[in-house]
Design brief:
Strand order of the largest sheet: 2-1-5
CATH topology of the largest domain: Arc Repressor Mutant, subunit A
Strand content: 5-15%
Shape: elongated
Order of helices and strands: EEEHHEEHHHEHHEEH
Number of strands: 8
CATH architecture of the largest domain: Orthogonal Bundle
Number of helices: 8
Oligomer: single chain
Helix content: 40-55%
CATH class of the largest domain: Mainly Alpha
Largest sheet: 3 strands, antiparallel
Length: about 260
């Protein structure tokens, strides 16, 4: 069995993923107040800032360039800071949400469905690219001061490589965000099928264990006016209709 969030292999009977902390597929969370990351929709608890490899690499780099003093100041400033285990966003930005409780069979079906393995967020590439650009800047300055053409050339090449590495890491982050969004949208579609072809923001938030803001953002992104469209009931309730699921029984073979 694998984690539906990050794809990590899970031990039999495990309740949570040891890598990202998400609930294991088929396991329901008990009623508790948790937080939801507004960037990647990760739900759970924050992790210590320096448990992320990219932050450790940045700490080492800062320490090397400042003879250890900068690294010490950086560590003191961030040692109690929490971040999102998935994307690294500061956990103070996460919103609170109430976890789903109760043995709801339809939720178990959704949670048990496997998701694609998420691509790398490119944290290491971004950190390495930043360090290379800083080192390249130092070499270029030294080349100007010492009038050494070799230092200028090496610095320019290293700066270009660092910029490309940072851009590659940034693209990896965007790809990971898109993969997370696709995974959640698939769960919404499965939930719509179980609910008969209509959903409200409250239903998505409750059944998929998301915040109201995240659920509304996902449904709005799926609303294309054709396969998914927002409607307002006579009582003024906003709901989202999935015509292909709503009228599935009425569909027949073509002429």
């Amino acid at each position: 069995m694998r984690c539906s969030t990050c794809g990590e292999a899970l031990a039999p009977g495990a309740g949570r993923c040891p890598t990202c902390g998400a609930a294991a597929p088929g396991m329901l969370m008990r009623a508790t107040t948790v937080r939801v990351c507004p960037r990647c929709a990760y739900q759970g608890e924050g992790m210590p800032y320096f448990r992320r490899s990219g932050h450790v690499a940045l700490l080492v780099g800062v320490g090397l360039f400042t003879y250890g003093f900068g690294g010490l100041i950086y560590w003191l400033a961030r040692r109690h800071h929490l971040v999102c285990p998935r994307c690294g966003l500061g956990w103070e930005n996460a919103s609170r949400a109430l976890a789903v409780t109760g043995p709801e069979p339809e939720l178990r079906v959704i949670e048990a469905s496997p998701d694609e393995r998420l691509p790398s967020g490119g944290v290491k590439r971004r950190v390495l690219g930043t360090l290379m650009v800083l080192l390249a800047t130092f070499l270029v300055l030294m080349g100007i001061v010492e009038a050494e053409a070799a230092l200028l050339v090496v610095g320019a090449v290293m700066g270009l490589a660092g910029s490309l590495g940072f851009y590659s890491g940034w693209r990896g982050l965007q790809s990971r965000r898109e993969a997370v969004m696709r995974a959640i949208q698939r769960k919404v579609l499965r939930l719509a099928g179980l609910k008969g072809g209509t959903l409200t923001v409250t239903e998505v938030a409750a059944d998929l264990n998301l915040s109201m803001e995240a659920a509304e953002k996902i449904l709005t992104s799926m609303d294309d006016g054709f396969r998914v469209r927002g409607e307002i009931s006579k009582d003024g309730v906003l709901y989202y209709e999935f015509p292909e699921l709503l009228h599935r029984k009425e569909l027949g073979a073509g002429d």
